[in-house]
Amino acid sequence: MLFPTLTFGLFFLVVFPAVWAARSNEWRKLLLLVASWVFYGAWDWRFVPLLIGSALINWGIAALIARSDDARARKTLLIGGVAANLLVLGFFKYFDFFAEQAGSLLTLFGIGQDAPLMQVILPVGISFFTFQGISYVVDVHRGRVPAARLLDILLLMSFFPHLVAGPIVRAADLVPQFQQTPKLNRGMVSMGLLLIVWGLFKKAVTASELATQFVDPVFSAPSAHGSLDLIVAAYGYAVQIYCDFSAYSDMAIGIAALLGYRFPRNFDRPYRSASLQEFWRRWHISLSRWLRDYLYIEGLGGSRGGKFRLYRNLMITMLLGGLWHGAAWTFVIWGGLHGAALVVERVWATSPRTREIVLPHWAKVVLTFHVVTLGWIFFRAASFGDALAYLGGIVAPATGAVTVTPLIVVLIAFGLAIHALRWDSMTRFAERLRSLPAPALAGALVAAMLVVDAMRFEGIAPFIYFRF
Amino acid sequence: MSDLYEFPVDLPDEGDDGQATLKWASMIVALATLGLAIFNPTAISGWVDDLPPGPTNVRVAAIGEGWAETADRIGLGMGHARLHAAWKTAERTDWKGRQPVEMAATDQPATP
């Protein structure tokens, strides 16, 4: 059930009045829980028990941690909880990948064995809800949040706006909201509606048009295209993935707001970053914060232990961050590229030879954008070989077709130009909308959605981050 | 960069919580739904066409198509149709401002 579809619209038209008409907060949460399972079951009902089981395990382990006074027992429970989550993620997401790699390795040593592939089906959103489970268990162990009630944890992990593609909302952010009866104010409603329409536009018009009309054909047959097409398609994919993923986050935040809940910001105009470090503060913020807090600092020790340990930890964090996106070497290389760039930035900033060389801000933005775009080529390519062939086509003057159209260039320019907007543009616009009478705001909403519908490509492609 | 609005839907407070806001929001949702149903009937008929066949869905499809035809007759979807046509033209236009012949040909009915 994709957000920009009529099916989801009808689903929301049932959920919205039902939730606000609920007799009590407990009933409201129960309704939301059932609605979330229906939403998740619309993809594959067989995985609803997995979602429930995952929430039960995390709730149970956190409750045991909270009850225990024995530091060693608490630590054992923490390790068990994290391991259980990683086991679920590992089996569904990485089993076939590692089995295949093991098979290749055995073949290399002359022990010809067919890898025992199980063709495991990847449950939608598993990377998101397992990371949410891990953060909850770690936070309870650290005393950052108290152990929550079962209903709150079930809802935390199943809540449909963030269930399949984030943002990764932590217990500290959402559970206190679940414990109180939510209240709407006009600001939440107007901002929520604005984010939904804006997300719809970015996804249905910009991302889908770029993907179907240009980026997908070029990436699927790079040798058939000229260098100009390859370069523009790389920029196109940079805009497409931003408009796709940030659109989902915007819509998730907006839908949650209409139900009375606040989600944290997940994107903040990432392509205006002047360094990779800044990029990761603006791109998929909930994941980068998760990786920073639970892997880089909690798991690896952060910058404690000297600069070489810092560089090692940065590389490990980004390599695992890459692997989180998918079981493929292209994602590992993408993560490695980002890790290496982060290390180079640190070395550059601290080395006596280079730290005096400071590029102008605009040059740093351009450089950062191109490093990120280079990474996207590996991220998007079907294999490492395809990525190299693609890069080869850019470097060597390829003589294939030039298929880029003016509309594609306009959409890419638009996707980059929106990064020049003020950080509070949406807020200021929403502040104006909230004073409108309901018929006027509804009219504006209808007009905006009709424009999106008229411009969108036929059908809606799944969001890129659904497969993660 | 700013972290001022970590929760983007938290606008400066105007002290308007409560039933009046819920009524306002519900009215927006209801009116917008009605507006979209009136002015974009093709979306409904297209969605119904994708539903799995069955006696109920056939009835729903008939209602959807009936409404789409009525709306078409009275010109309710005209603005949407014009914008869609303009977008499709922009999609096909090349750097010299022309639409490639083979693309235009696909718009013509196939000859037997």
Give an account of the 3D structure.
The complex is a heterodimer of chains A (468) and B (112). Chain A is mainly α. Chain A contains 19 helices and no strands. The two termini of chain A are 16 Å apart. In chain B, 62% of the residues lie in helices and 0% in strands. In chain B, helix 2 (41-49) runs antiparallel to helix 3. The longest helix of chain B is centred in the N-terminal third of the chain and has 21 residues, at 19-39. At the A-B interface, helix 1, helix 9, helix 10, helix 11 and helix 18 of A face helix 1, helix 2 and helix 4 of B.
**Class inferred from helices and paired strands of chain A:** mainly alpha
Secondary-structure element sequence of chain B?
Answer: HHHHH
Order of helices and strands of chain A: HHHHHHHHHHHHHHHHHHH
The rounded distance between the terminal residues' Cα atoms of chain A is: 16 Å
Fraction of residues in H or I helices of chain B: 55-70%
- Uncertain stretches of chain B: 103-112
β content of chain A, as a range? Answer: under 5%
Span of the ends, CA to CA of chain B: 62 Å
Please count the beta strands of chain B (DSSP E, at least 2 residues each): 0
Which spans of chain A of ≥5 residues are poorly predicted at pLDDT below 50? none
Structural class of chain B: mainly alpha
